[in-house]
Specification:
- By secondary structure, the protein is of the alpha+beta class.
- It has nine helices and twelve strands.
- The strands form four sheets. Strands 1, 2, 3, 4 and 5 form a five-stranded antiparallel beta sheet that branches. Strands 8-9-10 form a three-stranded antiparallel beta sheet, with helices on one face.
- A hairpin with a 2-residue loop joins β9 and β10.
- The protein is elongated and about 70 Å long.
- The termini are far apart.
- The mean pLDDT is about 95.
Length: about 300
């Protein structure tokens, strides 16, 4: 027999009744050893939906992980769950968080659940019934992971014509922005939502300099801080500068290569506007998001016809 650590959630219909029914259905797959309290939680991933009711459950079962996963999907379907997209509202959601101390990585089943360290609703409920369970990859207990949540950035994304643009914040500072998906807590946070609104205004074509948003500069070198600060304060909306000119302006003679390296490592694209830095002759040059993104941003600001 094995122990499966499950997370349950519902935010449609009678949420309490949905969780109670799910627990009853899961008891047909083994022996329910423990169930946490039911906790009211804010939506995860997409914030514009009803609040969830969440719980955790320990299930002693003879079913192998793959079979258990399939049977859980059948329970969700029988209860009326529809496939309406990732992080969307649902009658019931049942995830396998841990299965003993196994590590499984297949296209359709990943154990431990990859977002476990970022989800407060998972860690809070599991902490109640299995605080000493050790994450088999991170080698930390559920209780330790829960205590680390305040140090993990909040993350979200906005959508523009070239694709999604990702943002993360920690405290009252921007932690990182990126053209690639960022890992972190996909929970509502006032500072994160304020930054998201500003980015949406920017992508609508409104003039936005993001000067009200402090940056987390702790990971940067003194040179990077100097370059990014100059670029952010002096090369404003609609302006451009070449790598060589930027090197001279920050006091690095013949340092175009050093500037290029700093641009490539910029952890705050758009906020620190490295898209406004061009090669000599106003050639586009490289860009972390790719040429399509760079041209789009320059056209958006009226710096490129």
């Amino acid at each position: 027999m094995s122990i499966a650590y499950l997370s349950l959630g519902s935010n449609l219909g009678d949420r309490w009744e949905n969780l109670e029914r799910a627990i009853k259905e899961l008891s047909s797959l083994g022996k329910v050893l423990k169930v946490s309290q039911f906790y009211e939680t804010k939506p995860y991933g997409y914030f514009d939906q009803p609040d969830f009711l969440n719980a955790a459950l320990l299930l002693e079962t003879h079913l192998e992980p793959e079979t258990l996963f399939q049977r859980i999907k059948e329970i969700e379907k029988d209860m009326g769950r529809e496939n309406n997209g990732r992080w969307r509202e649902r009658i019931i959601d049942i995830d396998i968080i841990f299965y003993d101390d196994l590590v499984i990585d297949t296209p359709h089943l990943k154990i431990p659940h990859p977002e476990t360290p970022y989800r407060e609703f998972v860690l809070k409920t599991l902490k109640e019934i299995a605080p000493t369970m050790i994450h088999p990859v991170l080698k930390k207990t559920v209780e330790e992971l829960f205590k680390e949540l305040p140090s993990i950035p909040y993350v979200d994304f906005v959508t523009a014509p070239p694709g999604n643009f990702y943002l993360s914040t920690l405290g009252e500072k921007i932690y990182e922005t990126s053209f690639r998906e960022l890992k972190g807590r996909r929970e509502a946070n006032p500072f994160l939502l304020k930054l998201k609104e500003a980015l949406n205004r920017y992508f609508r074509g409104e003039r936005e300099d993001f000067s009200e948003f402090p940056l987390d500069l702790e990971r940067l070198t003194p040179f990077q801080k100097k370059v990014y600060t100059f670029l952010r304060e002096k090369i404003t909306y609609g302006k451009t500068i070449t790598y060589g000119e930027l090197a001279e302006r920050v006091g690095v003679k013949g340092g175009a290569r050093a500037i290029g390296n700093a641009m490539a490592k910029n952890p705050f694209p758009i906020i620190v506007p490295c898209h406004r830095v061009l090669k000599s002759g106003n050639k586009i040059g490289g860009f972390g998001g790719g040429e399509e993104w760079k041209k789009y941003l320059l056209r958006l600001e009226g710096a490129l016809l």
